Amino acid sequence: MDFLYNLPLSPELLTLILAMLPVTELRFSIPFALQVLNLPIWSAFLWSILGDIIPAILIIYFIGPISQVLRKNFKSADRFFSWLFAKTRRRFDSGYATWGKIALMFFVAIPLPGTGAWTGSIAAWLFDISKKESIFYITAGVILAGILVTLISLGLFSFFNL
User: Fold this and answer.
1) Is there a smaller number of Cβ atoms within 10 Å at the N or the C end of the chain?
2) 20-64 per-position pLDDT tens digit
């Protein structure tokens, strides 16, 4: 992680970029911004929320056309998207059948690996939820996840600083 200190990026921009990453999203960017970058709580929260929502919106609008082109032209892309879409359907299907679109918000809000805005955006596309509703529910889920991660981070930091 030492290389992060040498990047010519502001702490806010680094937080935004870290939140945009598909595996960690704001689950990593908030605690990193608070503990390592020493950003104020509101700043770590805001930049992380924005960084998590940006790729979600891009995925909602472009996953369909991009996946079609790649699947048509590359067998490895076809295998990857088949695997990704099947995995996403399995994770989201039962919740969607029970809770409907509100399940999307809770799916995104759970700050665990395999959930979050990236997977939620793919699920919204797979389940044909309108773009407008997808963005609404995903944003609500990201905000809830941000609140949870911030509270957990602050609690853990204060616990370990005793």
Assistant:
1) C
2) 999 889 999 999 999 999 999 999 999 999 999 999 999 999 988
Residue 4 lies in a domain: no
Is residue 49 a contact partner of residue 154, using CB atoms and an 8 Å limit? no
Q: 115 is written with which tokens?
A: 């959930």
- The amino acid occupying position 57 is I
For tokens 């990193």, the residue is 32
Burial class (CB within 10 angstroms; exposed 0-12, middle 13-18, buried 19+) of 24: middle
Q: At 47, is the secondary structure helix, strand, or coil?
A: helix
Check residue 159 and give its pLDDT.
Answer: 64
Distance CA 72, CA 146 (A): 37
Task: Give the residue numbers spanning the domain of 133.
Answer: 10-160
Look-up: residue for tokens 């595996």? 23
Distance CA 143, CA 50 (A): 10
User: What residues contact residue 63 under an 8 Å CB cut-off, 6+ apart?
Assistant: 121, 122, 125
Specify the pTM. 0.83
83 in any annotated domain? yes
* Any domain includes 1: no
Q: Is residue 3 part of a domain?
A: no
